[in-house]
Design goal:
By secondary structure, this protein is α/β, with parallel strands linked by helices. It has helices at about 1-15, 30-45, 55-65, 75-85, 130-140, 155-165, 210-220, 220-230; strands at about 20-25, 45-55, 70, 90-95, 100-105, 120-125, 150, 170-175, 185, 195-205. It has 8 helices and 10 strands. The relative contact order is 0.20. It holds the Pfam family SBP_bac_11.
């Protein structure tokens, strides 16, 4: 009877200590983060609520009091800004992204072939680093694309435009189209855009520092870095 009571007390104590942390994750990284969250929950006993959007949208929410514990961005600048404002105590790269072009109908194999298209979707460059990378890529072509561009809030939106043939093709995160059921994927040469260095931080406002730090370290672990590499991103050691 004493043994059963001890076990019951231990289970209740563990349940009481379990926490739920809120994580801001850029739209391009949502799929990998969902897998990471499942593994984290099994390992830690804690749970995660994911908040996804463009890096710009998430940053605006963070500085306006959104209760994020961990902040992942698709760039370095927004995390560095959080550090500068003492909203984060530490930050590191967690991956580098890859830009791709996806079309349901057009098989693009080089940058010049984009000239033949009339409607191209990119994420808003002021909100999404992948949009900025797409803009940089297009700058290598001696043609004004401004009349051809359709803007999405993030790369998930631009992917949907291409999926539903609302545009001829879209610039997306490579992870979005790693194994498409249909259509064509062109992995944009990395020489055409600045490295998409994705950085994360634990926010100083978090009241669940231990659980947040656990996730932070877990994302940097060899296990998760290998997973990230398999899902279309670059291991931090190769960034």
């Amino acid at each position: 009877m004493i043994r059963l009571a001890t076990i019951f007390l231990a289970l209740n104590t563990a349940a009481a200590q379990a926490e739920t942390i809120s994580v801001a994750v850029p739209a391009n990284f949502l799929k990998p983060m969902q897998v990471i969250a499942e593994r984290y929950e099994l390992k830690s006993g804690n749970s995660i609520i994911l908040h996804s959007g463009s890096s710009g949208q998430l940053y605006a929410q963070a500085i306006n009091g959104a209760p994020f514990d961990v902040f992942l961005s698709a760039d370095e600048e927004r995390v560095d800004a959080l550090l500068k404002d003492n909203r984060a105590e530490q930050a590191e790269l967690y991956t580098c992204g890859k830009l791709a072009f996806y079309s349901q109908q057009h098989q693009i194999t080089n940058i010049q072939e984009l000239n033949q298209l009339t409607r191209i979707a990119i994420a808003k460059p002021n909100l999404a680093p992948y949009g900025k990378a797409a803009e940089s890529t297009l700058s290598h072509i001696q043609q004004d694309f401004s009349a051809k561009l359709i803007y999405g809030q993030n790369v998930v939106a631009t992917y949907q435009y291409a999926m539903h043939n609302a545009v001829d093709g879209s610039f997306v995160a490579y992870s979005n189209v790693l194994k498409p059921d249909s259509g064509y994927v062109w992995l944009v040469p990395k020489e055409l855009y600045a490295p998409i260095k994705q950085k994360m931080a634990v926010l100083t406002s978090s009241k669940k520092q231990h659980s947040a730090q656990y996730l932070y370290r877990y994302i940097l672990s060899d296990e998760i870095q290998s997973l990230i590499s398999e899902m279309g991103y670059t291991h931090i050691k190769d960034c």
